[in-house]
Amino acid sequence: MPQVVGRQYKEILKQYLSSQSEEDLYVGQQFSRRFIEKDIAPEDVISIHKNALHDIVPDLRKEVWDSFDFLIEMMIHYGLTLREHQSLIRKQE
Amino acid sequence: MPQVVGRQYKEILKQYLSSQSEEDLYVGQQFSRRFIEKDIAPEDVISIHKNALHDIVPDLRKEVWDSFDFLIEMMIHYGLTLREHQSLIRKQE
Fold first, then answer.
1. Do the Cβ atoms of A77 and B33 come within 8 Å?
2. Subunit contact B78:A36, Cβ cutoff 8 A
3. What is the ipTM for the molecules in this complex?
4. A38 DSSP 8-state letter
């Protein structure tokens, strides 16, 4: 996954954390459409989020980062199911 | 989503955070299959994770919890795409 996506994600997240506005939350939701178009798997989103949060708030307890590794594992089957969907769609086209 | 799933998730996460073992990570991955079978959306997984982490490590900076709200929004389109997949599968059955 391109580093540029990670940088953009961090900027949008940072903006939301400082503004807490509905608009910035919406920017995030729209950004996620591009993630799907780029075939970025849900487990990769968690990983991008973990890295962005680590840059923004580095001094958190170890449990937080470990918990993200657990969440990444949880998302793997969701990612598999989505890829199955994409291959079904392509077959129908 | 049933509260029982949230409780089970918290126990498995807690176990992983204390053991850090590959086995407990694998338990999580297997547990996620059941989530998909129960039609639990990926955005709900983030929400379940947020609540579980809050019970395990409550005294974290506000940014952490706010960042989970952002991540939930990011997952909404993934959830929509998955539901589209499930309805396609059902049509083909």
1. yes
2. yes
3. 0.92
4. T
Dihedral, B14, B17, B23, B24 alpha carbons, nearest 10: 20
A62-71, pLDDT tens digit by residue? 999 999 999 9
Is the alpha carbon torsion for B54, B17, A55, A7 positive or negative?
negative
Q: What is the pLDDT of residues A38-93, one digit of tens each?
A: 989 999 999 999 999 999 999 999 999 999 999 999 999 999 988 887 787 788 77
How does residue B42 score in pLDDT terms, banded at 50, 70 and 90? very high
Q: Which residues contact B71 (CB under 8 A, 6 or more apart)?
A: A45, A46, A49, B46
Q: Do B71 and A25 touch (CB under 8 A)?
A: no
**CA-based end-to-end distance of chain B:** 26
